[in-house]
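[agent] plan:
  1. take the single chain provided in the ticket
  2. run structure prediction with default settings
  3. attach structure tokens to the ticket
  4. add a short note for the reviewer (M.T.)
[agent] executing step 1
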Amino acid sequence: MPVFIIRRLLQSVLALLVMSVLIFAGVFAIGNPVDILVNPQADQAEIARATAALGLDQPLWVQYADFLKNAFSGDLGRSFMYHVPALQLIFERMPATLELALAAMVIAVALGIPLGVFAGLKPDAWFSKTIMAGSILGFSLPTFWVGLMLIMLFSVFLGWLPSTGRGHTTLLFGVPVSFLNGDGLAHLLMPAFNLALFKLSLLIRLTRAGMREAMLQDYVRFAHAKGLTLRRIVLVHVLKNILIPVVTVIGLEFGSLIAFSIVTETIFAWPGMGKLLIDSINVLDRPVIVAYVLIVVFMFVLINLAVDLLYALLDPRVRLDGAQS
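[agent] step 2 finished; step 3 output follows
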């Protein structure tokens, strides 16, 4: 186990290094932030001073070498727009994004697995067909459209939920969270459901497929022959066998919830990392863009590592020593 973890961490360092090159080159190619940050009426001398102050007067490889040297000391640059460290800006917004992603994943898991189990056990029932039709809609409807319809229904027409913002927050171990008070929870519900809808549909279909395949296996027939109840067969035997692919999807999709919550955060004005990224792209704030993507890549690596370790707990046949990968 320790050897596996060390090897994965070394691989993650290489992945971060490669991604930093690609991101840095890509961000460099999309435009010059001085054109946005400096007054259009400024003369060439002022533009040159601003360019030098931001370190943009150096060749790309020099800029990257300076970035890499500072990154090893934990400095990913200072925001061109806010004049503070990029990591500080991202860490200030990170609790909001993690809370939204976690709430969305809780909704997807709490609804997706039970609905998928039911649809797999009774595939011909009308309720199962309704579940599958709903999952198709969840796959098909664009996230931004669903978000706007939720706002129209629950905020404009019914007036039940607030349409934007995070609401009041409560400190939990020094971290501001919304779900511990009524106002914050009301602000959290719509964006969390909007973000969860695609993942919910995915888990329903994956769990249903696993259930239908597992119920045809010999060990299920043997359990029926022993007189075990269907409830015990499903909860004790079947679920454990179908959880490995489900856990894989949950882990990977949780990472994607963090990385791709940009649309939801923008629609609901949720003050998270995704909205910060959009604002930074609008002003070509390179340090914030690069820092955001690298942090998201690092979080993906950690989530994948956690999923691999959970494999060993769910299935002892999965080995994490030198015999595997």
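[agent] step 4 note for reviewer: Residues 86-121 form the longest helix (36 residues).
[agent] ticket updated
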